[in-house]
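quick q for whoever's on today - can somebody do inverse folding on this one?? i tried earlier but teh output was garbage lol. tokens:
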């Protein structure tokens, strides 16, 4: 009877350990630290070309027909080393995008791009501030490297927001953020 009890206890502990390890792997997704996803998008409304400009194309386009940078800033590191430039851009059609250029950060579980009203603080003081005030999630981070665009919903006034964060929704922490300086 003693052997059966010990054997049942050992099997129970092993089952709990396997379930615990499985849950931990799902929750933390540590393999993402070694997986990079590079995304290279052009800014909407711009044409990438290698042909020389024609006489018609070299005429000065109206300021309303080309994308215009309204604000920009440099990403600083928070929970993970993060670098790159953030731009708030008004497109020719009047819509807005947040553009991450030359982004370089760690990959992680459930990363999002947030437009926020929070101030950008250096060090650990800045890790958790972005969900304290108002924020708009612009969607999942498309890749942890490269240049990419995130549409700002039409009902959102981008002038009400002062910063952008690469936010880990699973752990409620900023990987990196940039203060938007108006141009």
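ok took a stab at it. sequence:
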């Amino acid at each position: 009877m003693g052997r059966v009890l010990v054997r049942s206890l050992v099997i129970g502990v092993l089952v709990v350990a396997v379930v615990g390890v499985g849950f931990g792997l799902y929750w933390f997704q540590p393999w993402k630290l070694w997986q990079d996803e590079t995304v290279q998008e052009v800014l909407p409304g711009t044409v990438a070309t290698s042909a020389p400009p024609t006489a018609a194309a070299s005429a000065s386009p109206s300021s309303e027909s080309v994308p215009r940078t309204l604000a920009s800033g440099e990403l600083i590191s928070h929970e993970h080393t993060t670098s790159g430039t953030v731009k708030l851009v008004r497109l020719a059609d009047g819509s807005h995008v947040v553009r991450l250029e030359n982004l370089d950060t760690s990959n992680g579980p459930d990363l999002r791009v947030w437009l926020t009203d929070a101030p950008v603080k250096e060090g650990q003081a800045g890790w958790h501030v972005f969900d304290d005030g108002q924020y708009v999630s612009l969607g999942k981070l498309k890749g942890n490297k490269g240049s990419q665009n995130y549409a700002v919903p039409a009902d959102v006034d981008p002038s009400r927001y002062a910063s952008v964060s690469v936010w880990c929704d699973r752990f409620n922490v900023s990987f990196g953020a940039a203060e938007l300086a108006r141009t």
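fwiw The radius of gyration is 22 Å. also Confidence is low (pLDDT under 50) at residues 55-60. so keep that in mind when u check it
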